[in-house]
Amino acid sequence: MSEQSHMIEALETPCLLLEEKRLERNILRLRDKADRLGVALRPHLKTGKSVEVARRVLSGTSPKATVSTLREAELFADAGVRDILYAVGIVPQKLDRVLAIRQRGCDLSILLDSVQQAEAVAAKCAATGETIPVLVEIDSDGHRSGLPTTSPELLEIAALLVNSGAELRGVLTHAGESYGVSGAEAHAAFAERERSATVTAAAALRRAGYSCPVVSVGSTPTAHAARDLTGVTELRAGVYTFFDLVMAGIGVCGTDDIALSVLTTVIGRQRDKGWILVDAGWMALSRDRGTAAQAIDQGYGLVCDAGGQLIPDLVMTAANQEHGIIALRSGPTAPLPELPVGTRLRILPNHACATAAQHNGYHVLSPDPVLNGQFWSRISGW
Amino acid sequence: MSEQSHMIEALETPCLLLEEKRLERNILRLRDKADRLGVALRPHLKTGKSVEVARRVLSGTSPKATVSTLREAELFADAGVRDILYAVGIVPQKLDRVLAIRQRGCDLSILLDSVQQAEAVAAKCAATGETIPVLVEIDSDGHRSGLPTTSPELLEIAALLVNSGAELRGVLTHAGESYGVSGAEAHAAFAERERSATVTAAAALRRAGYSCPVVSVGSTPTAHAARDLTGVTELRAGVYTFFDLVMAGIGVCGTDDIALSVLTTVIGRQRDKGWILVDAGWMALSRDRGTAAQAIDQGYGLVCDAGGQLIPDLVMTAANQEHGIIALRSGPTAPLPELPVGTRLRILPNHACATAAQHNGYHVLSPDPVLNGQFWSRISGW
After folding, report:
1. ipTM for the complex?
2. 0.95 exceeded by the pTM?
3. How far does B271 lie from chain A, in Å, by closest CA?
4. Which of A33, A105, A249, A354 could bond to A286 as cystine, CB 3.0-4.6 Å?
5. Cα separations (Å) of B270 from A145, A177, A255, B321?
6. Which domains are assigned to chain A?
7. Radius of gyration of chain B (CA)
């Protein structure tokens, strides 16, 4: 490989950059935290959607993983991951595909929160003689799905599953509302809500005579803030690998922990308006405006030079499909940096999961800003 | 093909549906309008990003096309399109790729709005002996890029191009601000701004002795509302092919013109909150909230049954990565329709370009709601 091909300058823009050192540091940070809390880590692979990222995120001889689509489950099962949780409520139409993945030797478990779903799983297990392991979702914060901790449906579901030959593996929750609060104290409170809700539900199952080996909790904010996870067996999180401005905005990381950026090129300037135009629009950044509701709205992202250093006060304020508009936060009267046409810039994203999903892979920086020549491909679709 | 495979029920969800009859009707509508206005149509292929869609959108023996990425230019050049405009400001780093596409027999033209860009193009043409056709972008509404109509840079750019062996092909504008106003009267005013700005710039070039064969204008709202395009030679538009809720919200189409929808499956319900949960989140819909600033905020989209009929008052109010939350606009006290787990629904998107970009192709309905067995693949990337 030539010297030139190690340089960011040789890449076509827009494209996605991933800093290996920050990725590794972020991975170790949560791995250490889980070790200290005495729980297993079940990383969510929906952020990376990449076998190469997964190899770094997963650890131990029998790693556990979480996925958001059956397409991810198929990819990672084929790559040798043998314990995968599909963490979106199951529907009857997907059960044959679940069985097919299990028959490939992967212990794929599924999630549900209703008698109706449990009936479908029970019917499938009874009809096929196969065992499907099931987690029951518990609602710990009113965020989206899950049964109330004290729901009588919990025991009804347990009975349906166990009587049909399905496996009741445990209970799960995700405090998605933790993204809406800032600071370790607030996140620790949500972590305790996750713990308390699942431990209570597990106790109800056990009192009724059911085993409940898995008690699964997590989100990136709660995982990092949790102080005590007594009764919990595993911790899930996803975006902690890359981090992003949303996580920085609620105090879970600093901007210098963000491993993902979009490389872009300056295509023009509107001097009167104080605008710099670049060739990364929402197609490259996504339409995610997750910082809009935070204390500091970061627009479509913060702007770094090609070396990854933040350029003070510069924000991507607007995005069209293939155009980004960069301006000074302090307004058009401040002096705009001279960034001629052709200048390379890097944009730190609001939401790593959404931005990465706009690309087919990662150009790996190691050490930043040198490309190590590797391109880690991503999957998309369902 | 079995009967079953013609049915929407057989598809994995979430996925993208495209109704062929609405697509054809939308295509004919703008083609007729362009004919009546006496201008050529140069459809923007960035919405469909599909050779199959392009075959239907393009017309005549030497069709003209607009693209938003060089990757699209390569795809459509390979598919036989011989006249393509890359309508994002050029950077020096992309000129070799432009030349490579031109050498494949495609008359690819480029866009710029600064002396600095013109110098780079002039240098490339002088160095290679190749001719690159150039349109100069004019700002007609303060939306993003483009020179002011009366800018002295216009003649400076023209001189640079012509003296280097580049080709000054014409002027172009796009009134993106027309998306922010509602009704034919307001859109017609923006169409006139597009016409007036480009015709004025073309006249300045011609007065100075330059030829300016192409005067290119357009956006979906202005294209449909334009009343007189005297002096204009071609009309560009993209989202008119599929339409979406943003276009319906500003009166350019009705919801029954929207050809694109996302098929999803009900995965659960939170009865107390009046929520129905589905397996299409922002990964399937995109994060585009383009109707948020309109008179009626459509959330993440309107909800139809599997047959494509709108279910009154139902809106996707929130989206996580793979979860959508559907609720009644009138609030949780109204009776929620019984939509059991496994029910198929279709979501009409805010922004067709953004939603389609989340998928690798279209399942074609013809006639709705019957699948005709075709899957039209899309490209992504740059």
Report:
1. 0.97
2. yes
3. 11
4. A354
5. 7, 16, 36, 18
6. 39-241 (3.20.20.10), 259-377 (2.40.37.20)
7. 22
